[in-house]
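subagent[fold] <- orchestrator: predict structure for attached chain, return tokens only, no commentary.
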Amino acid sequence: MASTPIKAVIPAAGLGTRFLPATKAMPKEMLPVVDKPAIQYVVEEAVAAGVDDILIILGRNKNNISNHFDSVPELEQKLSDKGDHEKLRHVQASSELADIHFVRQGEPRGLGHAVYRARNHIGDSTFAVMLGDDLIDERDPLLPKMLAENERTGLTVIALMEVDPEHVHLYGVASVEPTDDPDVVRVTGLVEKPKREDAPSNYAVIGRYVLTPQVFDILERTAPGKGGEIQLTDALQELAVTDGVLGVVFRGRRYDTGDKVDYIKAIVQLASDRDDLGPALRPWLKDFAAQL
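subagent[fold] -> orchestrator:
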């Protein structure tokens, strides 16, 4: 738990092109993972870490997200009249999770630009950034360790995960030096989506960051980089050289819902572990796998 309350930013303005046509009219962050939209897992993770002021950066056609975190009196009244208190509890939970705010990104100009749009809400304070398609299993908390490292050192902290070298081209990749803590490294450089032969390591940046407010001044003057977008990785590279950046190495369960196959895996894994669904699902999975 953070002793000093901080705010969290969840960028959710991407177009979700990898999930077309499902995301033609529905934000990718609203795709259900078992029985909750992906973005709700992220908000719940923030709240569990003691963060209850959350800004979601929206793009066009993303009103479903704000609607999800709003109350729906007519639905709640109908469930109450029917005595369906369990469903009522689940419906109300999303609107009572946290103090949630929204701002539009406007033109989608990259993750760095989306983070910069949070400047007026964040002010001159440290804040967390949590990507909506990276789900961290609640049994393997990551954000509390990152917040603790930031509080201890005052530095920007990013989450890293060792990945197969064949996959480094999908991530921002860090060059690192060890510290006294085996789960914490010093980040000496970052490169966005390098070729395998150019990657400085197999430590990939995953979607959790604890950023100092200095990042806003850097993002303000950061030119478009990879893909013609303003990359957060480029700003972090400058911070690594000037102020210093730490990386917390995550070794727990993570679900990438931004990829079709990993999205399906996430649903199967999470459903299999649930007490209400697992007992019926696991035997069926074994039978299904035996037929392959």
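orchestrator: received. Logging for downstream: The chain is about 35% helix and 25% strand. The mean pLDDT is 90.
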